[in-house]
Design goal:
The complex is a heterotrimer of chains A (157), B (146) and C (307).
Chain A: H1 3-13, E1 18-25, E2 28-33, H2 38-48, E3 52-60, E4 64-73, E5 78-87, E6 92-94, H3 103-114, E7 117-119
Parallel strand pairs in A: 2-5, 6-7
Antiparallel strand pairs in A: 1-2, 3-4, 4-5
Chain B: H1 2-10, E1 13-18, H2 24-32, E2 45-46, E3 55-59, H3 66-75, E4 82-86, H4 88-92, E5 114-116, H5 123-143
Parallel strand pairs in B: 1-2, 1-3, 3-4, 4-5
Chain C: H1 2-33, H2 43-52, H3 64-90, H4 99-106, H5 109-119, H6 124-154, H7 161-171, H8 178-194, H9 220-244, H10 253-274, H11 281-305
Helix pairs in contact in C: 1-3, 1-9, 1-10, 2-9, 3-4, 3-5, 3-9, 5-6, 6-8, 6-11, 8-9, 8-11, 9-10
Classes of the chains: A alpha/beta (157), B alpha/beta (146), C mainly alpha (307).
Chain lengths: 157, 146, 307
């Protein structure tokens, strides 16, 4: 099975969930999907296509937030990135831990750094930030303000 | 006493502490112990325990989590003790100066004696910095006890 | 009164100076084998003087008096055993029956002091190092004592060190016989384990368990431990020279031979140290209770047979 057949199979299988396909290079494909279809698509890619879940990355755009889920299909040398766009008024998405447990830690990290809530995650608490970090302050957002009065931000020269 | 000060400067034992660095400076410090740039000819050894050490070599931009731990390690060093900051991240946090997790530069956490700039500094620069530390300490104890 | 003078001059001063020199030989040879320049001649002395000038920190959860007394036990026993060895070497008739047993017993006490110091530190890493040292002692003591029995048998079952040396003066050096040579090899390997050097240095593994046993020691106590180790680097090869190579006689060419033998043993220890990796605990026990004990038994049987 090569790349074109894989994409055609995906388009036939999920006609209304896939909003668009962008082929960036011979090795990478970006597929934009609806937010509530992520679990079904991830299950299809992981179980039937035997793709490997690499990582998820969260981006803070100007008017919306997006999450990219990267899957690798090794027989074809292909990386499929599923793109999900979330409006800033409702930052929630279903968690992928029901499909594979490898998503636990990366979803915790996206939650603590960007503030996106993952519904159905077994233990959603902070992973990397120190214990005395205040709740509700998410550092990688574009509107993050310095909350620490004792921080020194000039070079002293 | 003169003889103990002389013996102190001729056999400095170093302890290496990495606080959230990219590990380039750590590799360069490790290079100093290899046969090409050998610091054992000055009597400097790498120790495994902080209680045996005289010089604390610090690399890396100081994380929020590392600040209480650096203070605890500095307090566990027996006197007389010296601190050397290696690399740009340890001097002033370098490019991470506006990062959300690096609030303070190193010399606001523990007192630093010698700064060695570079990203990463060459082993020759590290050795030159350590020699400057010895020279500075000689003139200091010549004038007044610090 | 003369014994106090012997203790101080021979046991402490001369042993200390020769031990520091032997430690320098070890470090310089290590540096040369690794193709680099090593430390200057007075480096071990500078290390000990520097450590005398550092402050001593006693951890909060440590047993205080045991923590302070443990290094001194090791130092005192090394001073006493060095005095016995020196006096034996100078005039072999002046000693008492059974001083071989006393020497073997006293050579064990520095390891015991390291164990006591490790357990008194209150640190789990120190306890780990101390338990490893205990297992190391259990493994190498058996072949060591079997190897020591070979010169005893060859000198008509006398446990007096002076008698062993006089037998060698009359009948020839024990190391040139079959059983003696085998016993010498076993004794050198057991000496490596007693000094806790690579490949047997897991009690004091430097980067594995952050200096193991000595992790909480600093300042004067650490200086005492290091001085004990340097003096042991003098006492053990000297003991082996007296047992297997006839001691160091003081006239002319024999003094040169003795010095060469001593430096050769220290260099052998250093070369073994540099060409081997560190062994695990179960490998060490299997090594000492397997091949080494079998070889020692063979040497013992050869000695009983007269070879």
């Amino acid at each position: 099975m090569n790349r074109q057949e894989l994409l055609q199979t995906l388009r036939d299988r999920f006609p209304d969930e896939i909003l668009g396909v962008f082929e960036k290079s011979p090795k990478r494909v970006y597929i934009q999907i609806q937010p509530d279809a992520i679990v079904r698509l991830a299950q299809y890619l992981f179980k039937e296509m035997r793709a490997r879940f690499n990582i998820a990355s969260g981006v803070d755009g100007r008017n919306q937030m997006e999450i990219l889920y990267h899957f690798t299909v090794e027989e074809m040398n292909l990386i499929i990135s599923l793109r999900v766009i979330l409006p800033k008024t409702k930052l929630e998405i279903a968690s992928l831990t029901s499909v594979f447990t490898a998503a636990q830690w990366i979803e915790r990290e996206i939650y603590e750094l960007l503030g996106i809530n993952f519904v159905g995650h077994p233990k959603l608490k902070r992973l990397l930030l120190p214990e005395d970090w205040p709740e509700g302050v998410h550092p990688l957002r574009k509107d993050y303000q310095e909350w620490d009065p004792t921080a020194i931000r000039d070079r002293g020269v | 006493m003169g003889i103990l000060d002389d013996a102190f400067l001729k056999s400095l034992w170093v302890f290496h502490l990495a606080t959230g660095s990219c590990n380039n400076c750590d590799i360069e410090i490790l290079d100093c112990l290899t046969p090409r740039h050998d610091i054992e000819r000055f009597g400097m050894l790498l120790t495994g325990s902080i209680k045996h050490a005289d010089v604390l070599l610090v690399t890396g931009a100081v994380n929020r989590q590392c600040i209480p731990r650096i203070k605890r390690i500095y307090e566990q060093m027996p006197q007389p003790r010296l601190v050397v900051a290696i690399g740009e991240c340890a001097l002033s946090r370098g490019v991470f100066i506006h990062s959300y997790n690096c609030p303070l530069p190193l010399d606001h956490v523990i007192p630093v004696d010698v700064y060695i700039p570079g990203c990463p500094p060459r082993p020759e620069a590290i050795i030159a910095g350590l020699i400057k530390l010895i020279e500075q300490r000689k003139t200091q104890t010549g004038q007044a006890k610090v | 009164m003369i014994y106090l003078l012997y203790l101080f001059i021979f046991g402490f001063l001369l042993t200390g100076i020769i031990g520091l020199f032997a430690s320098w030989i070890d470090r310089k040879l290590t540096a040369r084998i690794q193709y680099r320049v090593g430390p200057p001649l007075l480096q071990p002395l500078n290390d000990i003087l520097k450590l005398l000038g550092k402050e001593t920190l006693i951890p909060f959860g440590a047993a205080q008096y045991t923590f302070l007394a443990a290094p001194l036990i090791g130092l005192v026993s090394v001073i006493v055993v060095s005095t016995v060895l020196w006096v034996n070497n100078m005039n072999p008739q002046q000693t008492f029956v059974g001083d071989l047993i006393v020497v073997v017993y006293l050579l064990l006490v520095p390891s015991l002091s390291v164990i006591i110091g490790g357990f008194a530190s209150g640190n789990p890493l120190a306890s780990l190092g101390a338990s490893r040292e205990m297992k190391l002692i259990l493994s190498y003591e058996l072949p060591f004592i079997l190897a020591i029995l070979v010169p005893v048998i060859q000198s008509d079952l006398s446990i007096r060190l002076g008698n062993i040396m006089m037998t060698q003066a009359q009948n020839g050096i024990i190391a040139f016989s079959w059983s003696g040579g085998l016993a010498l090899i076993i004794a050198v390997l057991c000496m490596q384990a007693k000094l806790a050097l690579v490949p047997f240095d897991m009690p004091e593994a430097e980067t594995e368990i952050a200096h193991g046993v000595l992790i909480e020691y600093s300042g004067t106590l650490l200086a005492v431990y290091r001085l004990t180790k340097h003096m042991l680097l003098f006492a053990l090869p000297f003991f082996i020279i007296m047992l297997y190579l006839g001691g160091v006689r003081g006239n002319g060419l024999h003094l040169l031979y003795g010095t060469l033998e001593y430096v050769g043993l220290v260099a052998l220890v250093s070369v073994i140290r540099n060409t081997n990796p560190r062994l695990r605990m179960d490998q060490v026990m299997r090594f000492f209770w397997g091949p080494m004990t079998i070889l020692a038994t063979i040497a013992l049987l050869l000695a009983l047979g007269g070879y």
